[in-house]
Amino acid sequence: MSDATRAFYGRWARLYDVLATLPGVSSWRESAAGELGLARGDLAVEMGCGTGANLPHLRERVGPDGRVVGLDVTREMLERARGRGDADLLQADAARPPLSEPVDGLLGTFVVAMFTDPGAVVDRWCDLVRPSGRVALLHFTRSERAWARPVNAGYRAFVWLSSTDKSRVRDVASSHDRRVDAGLEALAARTTDYRERTLAGGYLRLASGQVT
Ligand SMILES: C[S@@+](CC[C@H](N)C(=O)[O-])C[C@H]1O[C@@H](n2cnc3c(N)ncnc32)[C@H](O)[C@@H]1O
């Protein structure tokens, strides 16, 4: 985890929150939370929860007797998450999460590509989940659809703008996509019924699986 990440999200927390809670985005979040198959009373954890836009979707599923934990490294993002989904918020590094209780459902949205070794991080996340619990990961990706080819230039610009390590990486969009691939491969390796689908015209990959 780099200081650049904290500085970037600290500076842009307010704008990020506006974008993260746009009405259209909520249906993606709903789909991602749905992949966890949570039940009332469960423990749901979100890694890199940002301003907490997913937390109400998790709370809705675990009910008042369940527990929702949002973990993020950036204080300013967590300040905006306060009150959302009645969650316990932890400022910590998601690469080394300080959690000991078995987790029923673990969510990561738009975060896996931020790790230098996403495969190792996802593997560690799977270790935290009880057998038969689920992990769901949602990410932007380049669309493979024919109509999207001209729009992919916009995608590359979007990824570049939102990247916290553009000074260190030459092709930011390709590096982002490779990291997402590595995270999803690790998830596929650790789960029994790994499944993946695209949303938003192919610009989002939603993957999930049941931990063995
Ligand atoms: C693109 S935002 C996604 C936020 C949220 N998941 C969402 O869907 O709106 C990425 C978030 O990951 C957090 N983050 C990045 N690296 C992290 C790390 N190593 N540990 C915990 N959080 C991290 C950032 O602070 C930021 O809030």
UniProtKB/TrEMBL annotation:
Keywords linked to the UniProt accession: Methyltransferase, Transferase
GO molecular function: methyltransferase activity
BP GO annotations: methylation
Domain Methyltransferase: 45-133
InterPro entries membership: Methyltransf_25 (IPR041698), SAM-dependent_MTases_sf (IPR029063)
SUPFAM superfamilies for the chain: S-adenosyl-L-methionine-dependent methyltransferases (SSF53335)
Full protein name: Methyltransferase domain-containing protein
Organism: Halomicrobium zhouii
